[in-house]
Amino acid sequence: MISSQVAIITGASRGIGAATATAIADQGFAVCVNYLNSREAADSVVKTIVERGGRAIAVQADVSQADQVVHLFKAVDEQLGTLSALINNAGRLETQMRVDEMDVARLNRIFTTNITSYFLCAKAAVKRMSVNYGGSGGAIVNVSSAAARIGSAGEYVDYAASKGAIDTLTIGLSKEIAAEGIRVNAVRPGFIQTDIHIAGGEPDRINRVKSSIPMQRGGEPAEVANAIAWLLSEQASYVTGAFIDVAGGR
Question: Distances in Å between the alpha carbon of 166 and those of 40, 45, 73?
């Protein structure tokens, strides 16, 4: 069976990506769970979707590399059918430090993963979904961050800057392809309970900062996933170039 709605979620083996995969599968999407390293985690997400009556595949690809993006999208073309949604979610965070301590290798890793991958995947998606290319339209949701507004001084200015670039991509691309049947929006999560904080060197970071969040708690991946699912749905059919902050009021 070829599903009528097909989605790719980058970095979907854990956290927000995994929660989004199950959420949109429940809406009827066939889902490609893209992952970089953990086949076991990706297979677990696929298993959950299948057990709930959905359809999913796991595809390994480093989406910051053009040839691997080609591989990813080709696998979806062949195994799931015509693409109708892309969720750009893959992201990288490194150990907390000031800008004057960052080396060029770190900056290149952050920007390649957090920015280049979004552009490469958006390009491949547009070529499949745009009516100018014979497609039937679709939707792109970029996972940005509240850090783009806040700046993350003393911790992750490079990460925050990369997400600022994603905000600009969302605005520009949404206008560029609005007449081609594709909507482009973004979510900006705040402090969400995922293991990305381990990569930053502070697994318990949310407990440290939760008093600065108006809602006095961190968010759950499912709360971000629900916002993404809405942006993909027909309920958001007149929404493009928009941002949903899922940050507890911060």
Answer: 29, 26, 21
